[in-house]
Specification:
Layout: H1 2-14, E1 35-36, E2 51-54, E3 59-64, E4 68-73, E5 77-86, E6 89-95, E7 100-107, E8 115-121, E9 124-129, E10 131-133
Parallel strand pairs: 1-3
Antiparallel strand pairs: 2-3, 2-10, 3-4, 4-5, 5-6, 6-7, 7-8, 8-9
């Protein structure tokens, strides 16, 4: 019985949403790759604007030069928040009715050719590799 429980725990842990590997700081010169060169529009169009997405979780984020960001969480809704660069990490914050959202964006490699997001949700700590759109 103990072996069966151990197998179930190992399988459950291996099915998580987290990516593994070292994450890096995003150098200031890499920011234009991820930040739209306009203020947050009233009605963001993520088919045209630069954004990062993970379709499995799912989550989509778009950062704008005015320090605001737009998020779309198809399972929870969409909204806006603020972002800032802190020591090579992009820190995104938004207030929601049920919880405050805090997301850290970090590079997957030293060139910041792609990024991952780190956050905590009701299931615990998550790190998701993101896909770049319109970049």
């Amino acid at each position: 019985m103990k072996i069966l429980v151990l197998i179930v725990v190992v399988l459950a842990a291996s099915c998580g949403k987290s990516s593994s590997g070292k994450l890096y700081k995003i150098a200031p010169e890499a920011l234009p790759r991820y930040v739209n060169t306009k203020s947050l529009p009233v009605d963001p169009n993520l088919t045209l604007d630069k954004s990062i997405v993970n379709t499995t979780y799912p989550i989509q984020l778009a950062l704008y030069q005015d320090g605001r960001f737009y998020y779309d969480l198809p399972n929870l809704g969409d909204g806006t928040g603020t972002w800032r660069a802190e020591g090579g990490i992009l820190v995104l914050k938004a207030k929601r009715t049920l919880f405050d959202m805090v997301i850290e964006v970090k590079a997957n490699d030293q060139a910041a050719s792609s990024v991952s997001v780190q956050f905590t949700d009701r299931f615990g700590s998550n790190t998701l590799k993101m896909t770049n759109l319109n970049i």
